[in-house]
Amino acid sequence: MKNSTIQNLFPTPIYMANMNRPFTKQELQFVEKQKNHCVKNEGNINTKDNYILNRKEFKNIKKFLDQCCKDYLEKIISPKNNIELYITQSWLNYTEENQYHHIHSHPNSIVSGVLYFNCDKENDKIKFTNLKGYEQIKPETKDFNIWNSETWWFSVENGELIMFPSSTKHQVDTKKGTNTRISLAFNTFYKGTIGSNLDLTELIL
After folding, report:
1. How far is residue 156's CA from residue 163's CA, in Å, rounded to a whole number?
2. Could you tell me where the beta strands, DSSP code E, fall in 48-202?
3. For the CA atoms of the chain, what is the radius of gyration?
4. pLDDT given for residue 45 in this prediction
5. How far apart are CA 84 and CA 14, in angstroms?
6. Distances (CA, A) of 159 to 90, 162, 183
7. Is the pLDDT of residue 127 over 90?
8. Is pLDDT larger for residue 200 or for residue 133?
9. What share of the chain has pLDDT > 70, as a percent?
10. Are the C-beta atoms of residues 121 and 155 closer than 8 Å to each other?
């Protein structure tokens, strides 16, 4: 139809930002050393230290991520009350060739994020999944788009940050390429007062 239009209703925000600077030698050395202090995950490994952003080596990286959390809060959530979106847990992921990161979401978190330290833009992606459940009637798809796709992926590069609602299912497919894919993941939560005292919805965090 020539004059028809399509509007997006209740879309899932995928926030992207870039550090716009190379990682320092100190930061990269710290990331490399932490690979020796990991536990096995489903498909890859991650650091035992799951408050890794509290380490002094990541002081400047945490400042950048805190700024992005503030930007996400203002632009996307846009709260009426004066609240903060602060980082709770944080950890490093290491994924080698032929490894993967299982499909998952992040409970007990508002927004989650991933910052990439070492990745191959040609091969490394983050994949999001819309789990609709059982569909009794399901036509075959000719051309995939944002409305009919069950999965969608984005290529990632060094220094790039991706943030999304923590309930969003995501994964890393089987790793291609010989580089070690290294990322820093984190969760967030609210600090402050949300809701209304008069409406009996107040929650002080």
Report:
1. 12
2. 84-95, 101-104, 111-118, 125-129, 151-155, 160-165, 169-172, 181-191, 193-194
3. 19
4. 97
5. 19
6. 16, 10, 10
7. yes
8. 200
9. 100
10. yes
- pLDDT of res. 134: 76
3-state secondary structure of 52: helix
End-to-end CA distance of the chain: 51
At 2, which amino acid appears? K
Q: At 111, is the secondary structure helix, strand, or coil?
A: strand
Sign of the CA dihedral with 35 first, then 112, 18, and 62 last: negative
Torsion sign across C-alpha atoms 173, 133, 151, 183: negative
**Tens digit of pLDDT for each residue in 52-92?**
999 999 999 999 999 999 999 999 999 999 999 999 999 99
The residue type of 15 is Y
Amino acid at 73: L
Domains and CATH numbers, the chain: 15-131+147-192 (2.60.120.620)
How far is it, in rounded angstroms, from Cα 175 to Cα 155?
Answer: 13
Contacts of 147 (CB under 8 A, 6+ apart): 6
Distance in angstroms (rounded) separating the CA atoms of residues 139 and 55: 51
Residue type, 161: L
- CA-closest candidate to residue 121, choices 163, 153, 92: 153
Asked if residue 131 has pLDDT above 90, the reply is: no
